[in-house]
Amino acid sequence: MKKYHNLTLSILSGLLLISSWPTSPLTFLVFFAWVPLLILSERTNRIRFYLYSLLTLFIWNAGTTWWIWNATAGGAIGAIILNAWLMCIPLWAYYIIKNKFGNTAGYTSFIVFWMSFEYIHLNWQLSWPWLTLGNIFATQPDWVQWYEYTGTSGGTLWVLVVNLLIFLLLKTFYQSRSGDGVIQDASGTKRQLVKLGSAALACIVLPLIISGFVERSTEQPQKQATGVEPDNVIVVQPNIDPYNEKFQNGSVEGQIQKLVALSEAELDSNTKLVIWPETAVPVAVAEDAIGGNMYFKPVFEFAQRHPNVTLLTGIESYRNYGSEQLSRTARKLEDGYFDFFNAAVYIKNNTPYQFYHKSKLVPGVETLPDFLLWLGPIFEKFGGTTGGYGHDKEAAVFSSAANPYVAAPIICYESIYGEYVASYVRKGATLLTIITNDGWWFNTPGHRQHLYYARLRAIETRRWVARSANTGISAVIDEKGHLLATKLWDEAASIKFNIPAFTGQTFFVRYGDVISPLMLLIAGILLLWHWVTALRDYLQQRALRRQGSPARSA
């Protein structure tokens, strides 16, 4: 029976994580989601705890990111299994530290190891931070207005601390009972329970109160852009099926005409920026010859008709390096080495074109880590590329004369990287423009989760977000993370909205994530302590064996 009870706890923890994750309204359940797994760490051995943890994390990954299957079945299976396995590493380390050094070091390690894992997982070549715990509050922006100071790492810390306190509260209560259910040392236990209960309640309520104060005290860094009438932005949602053959092989002219028509239906004299989605123009174009490309002719005619308007659109582009392989991702074709890009271009009449190449590429689909390049042909079968796309090394912003909007051309997957988005603002961005497709996942929680994560970027940077998604959900989000305008999924439409251009920098924009590096330092100290003591014990045992050798020989 105990074995099945443990299995129930493992499954329960996974289900609570799923039930609290965006797009569920039951966000508060996350404050209890890790408790069953912490209970398991007290009652199982190392191997069983690892297996139960793996089951929990597999359930969580599968239940929240199963929609990847619609884009690539093999990729979904690989991502879910690999991510669950990687997530086990900090829990495995927590179990070892707790059993070796006791509860204080152990419970500390539970927090610092998990947060260190999230930080590493955010920054290495196989990055997949979709399930960063701090993302869970994307549906509750009013709870986390203090993200302008901490970013999502503050949310992760909040979740872990509350779970740990609730676990300790339950542990203290049950340990105080004898076999017949009578409470032992009632007065001392009561004081301890009150202390832990008060701490847990305070850790839940105080951040909510602080969030309210921060939201009310938030001042707009800059007033509305000058002008008799406010400037506006048009966000276009063309609703073109990415799996349709026409999207890939033909009818490019028809798609561009649709984009132009949706733009001009809303355009007026105060429109300063028009945004089209990722890969809006589905034809690969040489960046040094875009001006003469026949497919872009109606785009340039649109720019000529509206000289005061700037267009920001996603494109597929390439560069020809000739006979030299100037980058790791360049591929050898008949005419030389080529780099292909998932890119954005900034087009204004009589103004030089500005390009940005997506930097944060999707592992397995758009890029491969250096240590997995040998698996290129396998990933290509899952819908990826053998060599990967080329990319820029850092963020860039788009700007033009007489346009108040300095745009951050954030392409799809990049919008889940808080510190990276903040780097656009450090470069002067006054508006976050997110261009994405999201049609690859069909009408599943995937595109809605992606939309909600953008609300956190607005809070962290205190910038408005204009989000253009091919099939939806396109949206306008204010600097407090509130959705002010959206369009339905699977609808061709456009949004015109008066958006202020903000300046100024939040603490998070200036300094980035200051919590996670501290956690990484503490985790390093704990691991060093573990390795030093392990080496000391090994040397002591070896010395004892040597001392005992003559006696055994005699």
Distance between the termini: 52 Å
CATH architectural grouping of the largest domain: 4-Layer Sandwich
Strand composition percent: 5-15%
H-E string: HHHHHHHHHEHHEEHEEEEHEHEHEEEEHH
Class from secondary-structure proportions: alpha/beta
- Report mean pLDDT, rounded to a whole number: 89
Largest sheet: 8 strands, mixed
Question: Which regions are unreliable across 5 or more consecutive residues at pLDDT < 50?
Answer: 222-227, 378-386
Overall shape: globular
Tell how many strands the DSSP assignment holds. 13
CATH topology of the largest domain, what is it called? Answer: Nitrilase/N-carbamoyl-D-aminoacid amidohydrolase
How would you name the CATH homologous superfamily of the largest domain? Carbon-nitrogen hydrolase
- Give the total of domains: 2
What would CATH call the class of the largest domain?
Alpha Beta
- CA radius of gyration: 27 Å
Write up what this structure looks like.
The protein is an alpha/beta fold and 554 residues long. It has two domains: 2-218 and 515-537, no CATH class; 232-511, Carbon-nitrogen hydrolase (Nitrilase/N-carbamoyl-D-aminoacid amidohydrolase, 4-Layer Sandwich). Helix content is 48%, strand content 14%. It contains 17 helices and 13 strands. The chain has helices spanning 2-20, 30-33, 35-43, 46-65, 73-101, 103-123, 147-150, 152-175, 186-217, 245-249, 252-264, 297-305, 376-381, 418-426, 445-461, 507-511, 515-553, and strands spanning 232-237, 271-275, 281-286, 310-322, 331-333, 336-347, 354-357, 407-411, 431-436, 465-469, 475-477, 483-486, 493-498. Strands 1, 2, 3, 4, 5, 6, 7 and 13 form an eight-stranded mixed beta sheet that branches. Strands 8-9-10-11-12 form a five-stranded mixed beta sheet, covered by helices on one side. A hairpin with a 6-residue loop joins strand 6 and strand 7. The longest helix is centred in the C-terminal third of the chain and has 39 residues, at 515-553. The radius of gyration is 27 Å and the shape is globular. The model is unreliable at 222-227 and 378-386 (pLDDT under 50).
